[in-house]
Design a protein that fits this description.
mainly alpha, 3-stranded antiparallel beta sheet
């Protein structure tokens, strides 16, 4: 059955090298983005709290990833006009929608990491 062009474009074509969804996929599925989604799923956190929650992330990488997540509409940056500066981050409604998918992936990984590591040893 032939698909309508409007349906094709509304869904996106991730397998097509020119699909703009690929850039979003790259950002959403980065290691740091996934871990930030998990850290923010139940909390609004300050930058320093996020850095502690996401072990191993550099300050530069955290700032870059948060900027990308904010640009894509997944994270809201809340800056308070106080001294010293106070900035918090939380998931937006769009980020909350995606959070469920990210948590599902993280849960699956945690449940299957032993199987995956065992397979690596076989190869």
């Amino acid at each position: 059955m032939s698909e309508k062009i409007s349906e094709k474009f509304s869904r996106g074509e991730l397998l097509n090298v020119n699909c703009p969804s690929r850039e979003v996929l790259k950002r959403v599925t980065s290691r740091w983005s996934v871990l930030i989604f998990l850290a923010l799923r139940n909390d609004t956190l300050r930058f320093s709290e996020l850095r502690r929650a996401v072990g191993g992330v550099s300050e530069r990488m955290l700032a870059q990833t948060l900027r990308h997540m904010e640009e894509d509409g997944f994270v809201e940056r809340i800056a308070y006009n106080v001294v010293p500066p106070h900035v918090e981050y939380r998931l937006t409604p769009l980020g909350r929608e995606l959070e469920g998918q990210v948590v599902g992936l993280a849960d699956w990984l945690e449940l299957n990491v032993d199987r995956i590591l065992a397979q690596r040893e076989k190869v």
